[in-house]
Every structure is written in C-alpha cells, then in structure tokens.
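Appendix B, example 12.
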Amino acid sequence: MAFQAPPRDDAPGRITATPETFRSYNGCVSNVFILGIESSCDETAAAVVRSGEELISNVVASQFATHSPYGGVVPELASREHLRAIVPVVRKALEDAGKQYETIDAIAVTKGPGLAGSLLVGLSYAKSLAWSLEKPLIGVNHLEGHIHAVLLEERQKGNHKLEFPVLSLVVSGGHTHLFLAESRQDGWVYHDVGHTRDDAAGEAFDKVAKLLQLGYPGGPVIDYLAPHGNPEAVKFPFAQIKHRDRNPQNQDADDDRRVDFSYSGIKTAVLRYVEMREMRSRIEQRRSAMGALAARKPADYLAACDKETLDLVASFQRAVVDDLASKTLLAAREHNVATLFVTGGVAANSELRKTFELRAAEEGVPVYFPSRKLSTDNAAMIAAAAYPRFLAGEFVDAEFSADAALRLR
C-alpha cells in the first residue's frame, strides 16, 4: 500500500494527500511543503521546499574531514557518518524552516543512483518517518534532482518560462551525463544522449589532485590554483569515441547521435607527465608541508606549488573543461535544443561556467547553472524534483528500496 496522509482541513488552501485530489489541481498547488532527504554519497542533507519553487531551509553535513586522509570517499565510513548525522540534520532543517514533523505535506528521498549503503541510510529513515507520520513518500532520482536544482532557483527568481527541448549536462564526482528533457503533462521525460564510458569528470579532478597531493575534494583546490598557471603549457588530447557503447543497457537505436565522454585517459596522461618530469620529490615535499598544517586552505597549496605544477594543473583543467563544453554544444546542435542546463558538483568550477557562458552565447543558446551551494549534493534539489510527482500522486510503498545503479528516464 502506498504511503498516504489522511484527509485534513486544518489549513486553508491545503489539499488532502490523495492522488485523485493532486491530479485535479493540475499542477497549481501553491502551498505544499516537502521535506527532502539526500544521502547518496558523502553528504547528509535535508531541506524544506515549498511547491518546488521556494527554498525554505537547506542543511548539509559534509564528510570531507572523514574521507580526506584517504583522498576519496570510503563507502563504509560514509554509511556510518550518515547514521550519525541524519537525525540532527533533519531536525535542523525543520527548525530552520519553522516547521514541525506533522506540518510537512510529504517526504522525498533519493532512491539512486549512488553508494548502496549511503542510500539505504536515508531511505530507511525516510520510510520510517513517512510511516510514523502517515505522510506520502516520494522516491527521487539523484540525477533528476540536480536538474531541478536549476529549475528551483530560476523559479525563485520569477523565471517560469522555459523553452524545450532542454539539454542538461549533469557533471559531478560520480556522474557525467547528457540528458535531453521533454515536458509532458505528467512530468518530465529524459533521454540519455551521452555519458562517460569510464570515469566521471569530477572523479578525474579528485584523482589528479590526489596524485599531486592537493587534498580532497580536489575540484575546489584545482579551481583555485589553475588561474596561477599557464593552461597552454601541456597538451592533453582526448580520445574521440566512435564505436557504440558495448554495454547492452546503454545501447539505443539513436546511437549515431550520441555524444559520449571518457576521462580515464587524462588521469594516466597526468601520471605519465609527472613521471617523465621527475616531479615525485616535489609532490612528496608538498605532502609533508601540508601534513604539518592543522587546517589547510587553498592558499597553503598555492604556496607549496612550483610553476610547473601550476602549469600542469591549469592545463589539466582547461582540457577537461574544453572537452565538456565542446561535446555538450555538439549535442546541443545535433538535437536542436532551445535551452542548456549545466549542473552537478563540477558546475561550481569557475572556468567551466565562464567557458559555457561564452560558447553557449556564440551558439545562441541560453545556459543556466545552479548557485554553487546547490551545485553540490543537497536535499533542496530532491524536494524540488519531488513536487511534480507529489501533484501526480506518484508515491512509493513499503517495499520500496534503493537502486545504486538507477537510470534516469
């Protein structure tokens, strides 16, 4: 049986939580408060969003300190940290919103993709909360959440007009996807028109930063250091992918129009450059210098980097950004899109934003980004993406479970 709230008439303008009533409003419900919960990777997050267009509260508990010594996310540690943080994070989100558990209209939770253990922590808590409060529960795809982060902030600005088709680049530590989105009466429909065949772009940032001893997460540090180097110093050509994806679940009749990515090779190229230029001793010196500091700031890494390292970092970032922009805009032309979204953690990168703004303007395609605080994983995007499903009465039942490899359709 689906989670459903009992009828209620205690608040003017509110609706009872039944699918039939939601459909009768045809998407025009103005006062629905959804509690979102996100735990797909290494951030425990909760947020309250009104009707998919107003951010009421947004709380994120980061695990950077836990995973930093390992240079990446350790799944078992991530799950344990979620267990510690989820109750206080949800309480804080409700407190900041001036809400009680009973006054929330629905609960939304990330159902995938992500780390299985991390997803299960958030999902188990959300299911228990929905059951005990008799509130509807909505499962949200994490990737769709990133797309709705853009929509949420545009609606907050009063921008409710959007031209379709929309091409969305979702680029983060775990994902690099291109989705062609269409709007239908019952919500958005997505078509995967490109994705990475191996590593995500954000993973390449983190792994290169780990190799060069620039800390974790590596993206923000590389973004800070790159303007101090010469982006033309090292040439990093990318493989041109021509053959079809051999994974059967990724094959499509429209494969000739696909635009796929690959970021495993550039990590190897950086490693080979380090070896050929005999940079290991300088990397070790930087590791020792950073290890002596109780707290590390980007400026500390800048002081510990020589010119060649800064040039390497700048060249690496330029290569990844150019590849992302070139292939995304190629797909935009191929599918004749009217609007472009760039979202996910890597969308916070300064050079990426500047490059897309410049090149999209040359193509005559408007491009939208989320703010930096909603680029990385958060629960506001989950609550926002849940709103259309709330209106359609798309609730999950008690047998609902996480899907670590969930696809967006």
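Confidence is low (pLDDT under 50) at residues 1-27. The CA atoms of residues 276 and 391 lie 59 Å apart.
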